[in-house]
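Q: For a teaching handout, I want to show students what a protein-ligand complex looks like in token form. Below are the inputs, and the small molecule is heme C. Please produce the holo structure.
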Amino acid sequence: MADQKIDEATGTATMGHEWDGIEELNTPLPRWWVLTFYATILFAIGYVVVYPAWPMLSKGTEGVWGWTSRGQLAAEKTAGDAIHAKVRAELANVPIEQLQDNPELLANAVAGGKAAFRVNCVQCHGAGGGGGKGYPNLADNDWLWGGDLKAIETTIKHGIRSPDDAETRMSLMPSFGKDGILTPMQVNDVANHVLSFSGKAKPTGSGAALFAANCATCHGPDGKGLRQFGAPNLSDAIWLYGSKPSEVTASVTVAHAGQMPALERASRPSDDQDAGRLCPLAWWW
Ligand code: HEC
Ligand code: HEC
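A: Here is the structure, written as tokens, with heme C included.
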């Protein structure tokens, strides 16, 4: 431009603005900055062409490479399943009693079991299997139904008093008080006898007679429990429903009949379906 003024000190053209003798220079942007700026524009155009980018009404633009995060997940899952399929097939063929002879397979089973426990068991038995009132501790040595691998497998497969499994573990303690089998006095007497097993009360003749007549078939003559009935040991320090006299009386008045669901399922909704239901953005692409 003809009327362009050149700043003497720097040799740069000015913008023509001046405030109290201070002039604005028209310094060009550094070349590296301009090049980087153009490069980002090129990158963005390339990205929009090859990857899913713009949300449209019902679907996003797909991109020429056809990549989707769901597709990538599926591919990774297929690869993971292929690795696990071999171990799963081996596990299915080895009876659980023989698992201990095969340390590598056992380690795989334990790892898989750990994950399954977190999904299926912690809500009742607690994170470390410590249990709670009515939910047995699985980390101790006191077992209602048996603590060897085979017994535990049966418990998990068929549940306990599970209404939807014909082979479920079943035994029902009568509600002695509620159903009028024993009078409230007799309930107190026999509860007192229960507490005498662990030295918390003095045994009485009437309590002992009531126990022998009504309870020994399931809990054993000395209250040590019988596993074929899932009847707890009443003489130790471990209680499912509490050891206070009031709690023991309550257990005898109305039986608890704790339930555990049968957890062997032939099939479950596929993980993909689950993911679809869980991800509210799934409809997007
Ligand atoms: C809805 C709650 C619930 C869930 C879920 C549950 N359990 Fe149980 N489980 C129970 C109850 C209640 C008992 C005790 C039943 C009884 O009184 O005999 C029990 C008992 C057991 C026993 C028998 C303990 C013994 O002393 O013999 C084992 C073993 C067991 N559960 C393992 C599991 C495993 C493993 C899972 C997960 C795969 C699981 N449970 C999930 C409620 C549950
Ligand atoms: C048909 C078998 C059966 C008979 C008979 C029976 N029980 Fe039980 N009892 C059980 C079972 C099974 C449980 C565990 C119930 C559960 O987990 O819900 C149990 C639980 C208990 C408990 C709770 C134990 C705890 O750890 O909190 C007490 C106490 C008890 N019984 C006392 C008695 C007394 C006393 C009698 C006799 C008057 C008796 N039972 C008769 C099967 C029986």
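A: Two things your students might notice: Residues 172-253 form a domain with the Cytochrome Bc1 Complex; Chain D, domain 2 fold (CATH 1.10.760.10). Strands lie at 14-19, 22-25.
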